[in-house]
Amino acid sequence: MTPRWFAVLLLGLVKQSSSEEDECSVGVIGESAILPCIYNGTQSLLSANISAWWRSETEEMLRAMWRQGEEILNVSLLESSRVLMPSLCPQTGDFSMTLTGIVPMDAKTYSLHISFDDEETSSVLCTVCLKVGAHFSFPVIQRGETNVEHQTQFVCHSRGGYPQAALHWLINSTDQPPSGSVKAYAQPLQDSELYNITSVMTVSNAKHIPVTCTVENRILNETFSTIYWPEEKQFSPVVARASEAMLVFSTVVIIIVSLLVAMGIVFQVKWDRERRRPRLHEDDSDTEDTDITMDMEHLDSLTDTVV
Ligand SMILES: *[C@@H]1O[C@H](CO)[C@@H](O)[C@H](O)[C@H]1NC(C)=O
Ligand SMILES: *[C@@H]1O[C@H](CO)[C@@H](O)[C@H](O)[C@H]1NC(C)=O
Ligand SMILES: *[C@@H]1O[C@H](CO)[C@@H](O)[C@H](O)[C@H]1NC(C)=O
Ligand SMILES: *[C@@H]1O[C@H](CO)[C@@H](O)[C@H](O)[C@H]1NC(C)=O
Ligand SMILES: *[C@@H]1O[C@H](CO)[C@@H](O)[C@H](O)[C@H]1NC(C)=O
Ligand SMILES: *[C@@H]1O[C@H](CO)[C@@H](O)[C@H](O)[C@H]1NC(C)=O
Predict the structure, then answer these.
(1) Which residues cross the membrane (predicted)?
(2) Position in ligand 5 atom list of the atom nearest CA 209
């Protein structure tokens, strides 16, 4: 499916986004997140009897009690103990809650309540919201032809993200695709809340222009772009051609050098023989003959392997 003549350049762009409503913690699906809460009040936590509990909008999740700093109760009210609080809260003042195995349903607002000395009244120490997302993969662009002349189809695909996002196209780095040229699909993945997203853009005369596909995950503050370079702008095939040329060149050089060496040896041996002939026995010249053939064979096999 992937023709050899194009190159795809991946660009990871992490875009700055405005941080107005971004007081929330961010959790990635399947991982854990910390909902921070630090006690900064003036009342001593160690000399009092305290109860502290985390609530979501709908239910209590975790409750703990300390008598003068010593833990006397610690219950997770959530299924499979997905919530944890440090046990030394009164000592450190850190009541942050860790929520593990995050699922999309966890995107809520949570609050930590605290009451002193078994008082009826409690106060809210912290209110923390959680946003949930999952990383989309880098978009992958594939190019195809259509039956219509001068028309090109680009398919951009990104997998396994949350929440469902749209893929955005740019033609020639700046131009929006013409209206009606883009069809988008989202495929929910089985047994998870994640999505594959696909976008198909059908455009005319775009064969020689770079095309960009971008996926933006606003929750995770991630923007990934892939640029599909047309034939003329490609990089890797140029590199491939250069290295092919290098290979041919070095092969030729090796052959020439081998021939020169071989000729040198032949002349050297001949010259030696001429010079020594009057003084040498026939046995000696026989040995030299063998040497030459061996050398030639060796050279032959050398050039064979190189070519
Ligand atoms: C998004 O990421 C950029 C770069 O990593 C960072 O500077 C910015 O503060 C982030 N914005 C939010 C809202 O987290
Ligand atoms: C405690 O923290 C809250 C917000 O986290 C802040 O508004 C308040 O001024 C702090 N109080 C002290 C005494 O540091
Ligand atoms: C509750 O107990 C668990 C272990 O059973 C511990 O990891 C956690 O820190 C304790 N939490 C508190 C608030 O004491
Ligand atoms: C804490 O609780 C214990 C028993 O539950 C009680 O004896 C003690 O007086 C309480 N301390 C304070 C400061 O309320
Ligand atoms: C692509 O953009 C460049 C500069 O941004 C412009 O010179 C060129 O004409 C554009 N090509 C097409 C086919 O629109
Ligand atoms: C999601 O995309 C991956 C590849 O990117 C593919 O292997 C998988 O089958 C897709 N799942 C669905 C439900 O489309």
Answers:
(1) 245-269
(2) 13
